[in-house]
Amino acid sequence: xxxxxxxxxxxxxxxxxxxxxxxxxxxxxxxxxxxxxxxxxxxxxxxxxxxxxxxxxxxxxxxxxxxxxxxxxxxxxxxxxxxxxxxxxxxxxxxxxxxxxxxxxxxxxxxxxxxxxxxxxxxxxxxxxxxxxxxxxxxxxxxxxxxxxxxxxxxxxxxxxxxxxxxxxxxxxxxxxxxxxxxxxxxxxxxxxxxxxxxxxxxxxxxxxxxxxxxxxxxxxxxxxxxxxxxxxxxxxxxxxxxxxxxxxxxxxxxxxxxxxxxxxxxxxxxxxxxxxxxxxxxxxxxxxxxxxxxxxxxxxxxxxxxxxxxxxxxxxxxxxxxxxxxxxxxxxxxxxxxxxxxxxxxxxxxxxxxxxxxxxxxxxxxxxxxxxxxxxxxxxxxxxxxxxxxxxxxxxxxxxxxxxxxxxxxxxxxxxxxxxxxxxxxxxxxxxxxxxxxxxxxxxxxxxxxxxxxxxxxxxxxxxxxxxxxxxxxxxxxxxxxxxxxxxxxxxxxxxxxxxxxxxxxxxxxxxxxxxxxxxxxxxxxxxxxxxxxxxxxxxxxxxxxxxxxxxxxxxxxxxxxxxxxxxxxxxxxxxxxxxxxxxxxxxxxxxxxxxxxxxxxxxxxxxxxxxxxx
Length: 616
Ligand code: ADP
Ligand code: ZN
Fold this sequence. Notes:
Helix content is 46%, strand content 12%. With 616 residues, the protein is α/β, with parallel strands linked by helices.
């Protein structure tokens, strides 16, 4: 008969697993794949789990760590994240700790002693630790039952976030051949998946591949015109929401952040050129809901473990669909509705294309151009955005619209614009013939609407026969039409900073032959709110939600942790809807486990009772 090592805990049953989900984590049901992954982990198998951001990957290793014996060691790339994760575990009553370079000597000693005494269920470490021989010796003596590799795509050079330190994990595997590995990532491409399996030498791994659809996200693309004003209006229209505005350059992040600040929005810029102290402060303030909007380059990335990011705006077109998916994926991790808006200008795309074409590292350049081409196709498409995104990951959506992207909500009609196109094309023609320098869409709009600007005066453009012939149409619509004519190939964009327009051969033909021109109707200025966004507004008592959120902020600040460590937005929404006024009613709210019930239950019950009490 086989003998098993004597362990302090009995082998967990399915019942234990399901009970712990509620008592420790406070959740009523598993999200897709979670339960199956937990069972495979508990069975001691190697596991590769590919779930989208917000899919609930942490639970897949945290729950086994709670119900089963031994230490779970989690390798995670981001030092900044470890403290938050450990704080969150702490708030749920799970003994966990981390070791990284941010700790002093005494702190490390204290923690190492705790680990030797079996005080913790989880240990987070940075991959840098894995070069240290003494550390391997320690691990051998700590009863490690499971290794977890978070953000496992970092091991692959094909991923979007390669980290050479991750290559050290191979050494870990060879030293602990009998300890199972769980690898987790949100990166779905086949090549990255294969890389992870190979580099970690996973043995007959149980592979769990989740759907990459994020149903709580809405996707929209708008023409990029008056972009700073558009961002300000967007941010103002959601005064309670936190979000990220991704910009293509450091300069743009600073200019935009400044504009928002001047308008009274708590905003900050974030990019790799700022000193680390300032970056850390900004990130921290964002986590604590002190800063509402971060205007960032892609440097503001994986490190943001904030579940209540309610919007992600792209001020400039991203360089690939995968990048776009990852960046928008940072919105709505708590499962509540969140909005993704891309401001797209054909001119930006032309500029990038030029830049890439100038690069001579041929193979790399060709790949980058192909990535960009697919991104442009996404932006210019009138098909369902969600379907287009998922197709990129090899997933197909069932027939019919998704109901929560601009293409599905407001299918944009093709309208006949032959007459206006004639006016615009002939203005471009006349400007060229006048011998003056070529101009961009903004100036053309001024000429057509008959606006006497300084530039018009200086160039005598009011003498053009088309001056003022388009005053019945707004300047914005003229700019939109110019963009459409570029897209249709009737006008060419210079692609430099001046973005001047010139007639193409086809444009000249259209002008002479009066070819019918059909364009996509200009976008609505006041975008209709999508179904997902509307339902958020109907979901529970808004003023109660707000006061619960204030309460949460106060508690979080007192404890010096990010707000969501207390409760996520989803939990507060549920409270605002159900209005629990006793502890046992509070226990039934999804996301309220025993520890949090004990710590915060009464405070929130009292807050709810105060709000819903009838007036005397
Ligand atoms: P990922 O790492 O996959 O992006 P997280 O582990 O951070 O996702 O989980 C995202 C959010 O979902 C967190 O707020 C987490 O508490 C919540 N969550 C995880 N599992 C469940 C579940 N079964 N039911 C409800 N919420 C869950
Ligand atoms: Zn759609």
